[in-house]
Design brief:
The chain is of the alpha+beta class and 649 residues long. The protein is 45% helix and 26% strand. β18 and β19 form a beta hairpin. α5 packs antiparallel against α6.
Length: 649
């Protein structure tokens, strides 16, 4: 570019032709930005056709945009561009307009480029501000040193240059005396301000910063900058970004120039963005879920810091190691479905909402529920934003519930009792286990659940009540009290009645309340009970009508538990009286040792008959009997049964 500018007398057409090589390869966004440059330059007062320098300036703008586009945050790049501009020796009037106008064109581009990186954006903006102000300072210094015109003409050009500048510009001596100022924001006029000290208009807290900046420029001859607060145009506090540059005479710094720009709006914007970012960071870091941002290739762009607590790896490890600490640690059984879902998220914008297992840094497997909340495209690259949470405990609970359900289902399906459910308002059956289908002789469960309790019952119950009426009474009692156990006569679909016991239990599940019924077929039990009753009656008949007296005694307590009619007549006692007396009460006291010895031997099966033992009647008369005995067990307890027959005299 330096060579192009150094060629005197070139026309605008020739210059643009030579500059055309810079336009190749510029993307659409850059073309749109540069397309507005000429219009913007016109708006700032640079008309078309003035000279070849106009075209050089426009083409230089293209070159600057392209350079910054390659690496907007690199200071060296900015410095190189600044140096190129200074070496080009563009006239001061053009430089003034370009410096303060081009920044307005450049910032929107940076704002788009760094929309999701607030601090990077403001860092770049500050670099551009500083660079452009240094162009201005250096250009003024070059003009001030190199002009050979008269002092009067030099001062006139100087004033013309700075009076229209958008910033406060002042020339200050080594002692801080203001020698020139283009405008003020205080109640003092420019005339009254000149000759006073610059520290008089600077808050005390910034005196040290200002003094060290001025001394540094005098010592090094290089510009520096700082930020400070001060009085604003409306009397409020404003923020200023000040560049301090050298003014030299014969290579020696004689004064410094201070250019202060009001950056209050920018500072407020920074503070709002920092506040917003801080709120967002606090929100992200304090929610239990891990927030993330990835690109279409699976690269993690951002992940919240709480990932370390959940997963074991820090964000820095995940950024650095990539796949090795993410996709490669996903359970082999889950990796395919995860990658398929992730691919479809970007290819077809399909919902990404998936659960999978991943191995923590410590080797423990955990379950994650991962969900993308949004996708977007920037610079032809697609990104996804989402959240994931640890659902390991939930999965364990689900597995426990599932295991419990399997056990319950196994118990229900293998039960010999009929287990069914019935629900309001119809109170028809809603489920039935295999035993239910078998008990009621139905084709299948579907056939059974089309029925109500009264439809698998005879018209009336044994007490004479209608089954339909009594069934509803039993149901209401169970709903009120929580359970109800009762006997019931059911009917199979083949028409056969059968006795049963029914247990109704109230169950509440979520927002449903229903009854579980457990029905036990008592047909066999009733039959056994009937047979036992018949057997007992037969035994009782034989027992009571025997010719010998019979007593059954508990071997341990020696108390009688049964006595027949014959023995009651022989001793003159009732059965209940004999039960109270026991063995000790039906023999004379003096003969008890002989009697108890015989009782023991018979209980041990050592003798079968004890002959001629004295018996004591209720009327105190004594008679003698031969006693045949045998031990047996009843309901788990040992007993001795004795047959009493009077001895021959």
């Amino acid at each position: 570019m330096k060579n192009l500018i150094s060629q005197k007398g070139m026309t605008a057409k020739e210059v643009c032709g030579r500059m055309a090589k810079y336009k190749s390869g510029i993307d659409k966004d850059t073309v749109n930005i540069l397309g507005g440059m000429r219009t913007e330059l016109k708006r700032m007062g640079i008309p078309d056709g003035r000279s070849a320098t106009d075209e050089i300036l426009e083409n230089f703008s293209e070159l600057l945009c392209r350079t910054i586009q390659k690496d907007p945050t690199t200071k060296d790049t900015i410095r190189a561009v600044v140096a190129d501009l200074i070496k080009s020796k563009i006239p001061i009037s053009y430089t003034e307009t370009f410096v303060f106008g081009f920044k307005d064109m450049l910032v929107p581009y940076l704002q788009k480029e760094f929309s999701d990186q607030y601090y990077s954006f403001f860092s770049a903006q500050k670099i551009i501000d500083a660079a452009l102000r240094r162009i201005w300072v250096t250009t003024i210094d070059e003009y001030y040193r190199q002009t050979t015109r008269s002092t009067e003409e030099k001062e006139e050009r100087w004033r013309s240059l700075v009076e229209n500048a958008p910033d406060i510009i002042m020339m200050v001596g080594h002692d801080g005396t203001i020698k020139f100022i283009n405008r003020t924001v205080s109640s003092f006029s420019v005339e009254k301000t000149i000759g006073t000290g610059v520290y008089d208009y600077t808050p005390p807290k910034y005196h040290k910063t200002l003094k060290s900046s001025i001394e540094r420029v005098f010592r090094t001859g290089r510009p520096t900058s700082y930020e400070s607060a001060g009085d604003g145009p409306d009397g409020s506090i404003s923020w200023y970004s000040t560049t301090v540059g050298p003014i030299k005479n014969s290579g020696k710094v004689t004064d410094v120039i201070l250019i202060s720009r009001d950056v209050t709006g920018q500072k407020r914007a920074e503070e709002k963005i920092k506040e917003s970012e801080e709120k967002y960071r606090n929100l992200v870091e304090n929610i239990p879920d891990v927030s993330w941002k990835t690109d279409e290739n699976g690269k993690t762009i951002f992940i919240s810091r709480n990932v370390k607590e959940m997963y074991g790896y820090s964000p820095e490890e995940i950024y650095k190691k990539g796949d090795s600490v993410w996709f490669r640690r996903i359970h082999p059984a889950d990796i395919k479905k995860l990658k398929d879902a992730y691919g479809l998220l970007f290819k077809k914008a399909q919902k990404f909402d998936i659960e999978y297992r991943i191995k923590r840094k410590d080797g423990e497997w955990i379950w994650l529920h991962d969900k993308a909340t949004s996708i977007y495209t920037e610079n032809n690259i697609s990104y996804a934003i989402g959240l994931f949470r640890d659902i390991t405990e939930r999965k364990k609970a689900e597995d426990a519930i599932k295991e419990s359900e399997e056990k319950f289902r196994s118990i229900v399906e293998s039960s010999i009792d009929a287990i069914m459910t019935l629900e309001p308002p119809s109170w028809k059956f809603t489920s039935g286990n295999p035993a239910t289908v078998k008990m009621f002789n139905t084709k299948d469960e579907k056939t059974f659940i089309s029925l109500g309790p009264w439809e698998v019952s005879p018209k009336c119950q044994p007490d004479g009540q209608l089954s339909a009426v009594k069934a509803k009474k039993m149901i209401m009692k169970a709903m009120k009290e929580g359970s109800n156990f009762f006997e019931w006569t059911h009917k199979r679909l083949n028409g056969n009645d059968f006795p049963a016991t029914v247990l109704l239990t109230r169950v509440k599940l979520s927002d449903r309340t229903f009854l579980q019924a457990t029905v036990r077929d008592m047909t066999d039990k009733k039959k056994i009970e009937e047979e036992r009753r018949e057997s007992e009656e037969k035994f009782k008949a034989v027992f009571d009508n025997a010719n010998d007296g019979i007593l059954v005694a508990d071997i341990t307590t020696k108390k009688f538990v049964m006595a027949n009619r014959k023995i009651c007549n022989m001793l003159g006692y009732t059965e209940n009286e004999l039960k109270r007396l026991g063995v000790m009460g039906i023999h004379p006291k003096e003969d008890l040792p002989t009697v108890l010895k015989a009782f023991k031997l018979q209980a041990q099966k050592k003798i079968g008959i004890a002959r001629y033992l004295p018996m004591l009647r209720k009327d105190k008369r004594i008679f003698y009997a031969d006693i045949s005995s045998a031990p047996f067990v009843m309901n788990g307890k040992p007993y001795l049964i004795g047959f009493f027959r009077e001895s021959a005299k």
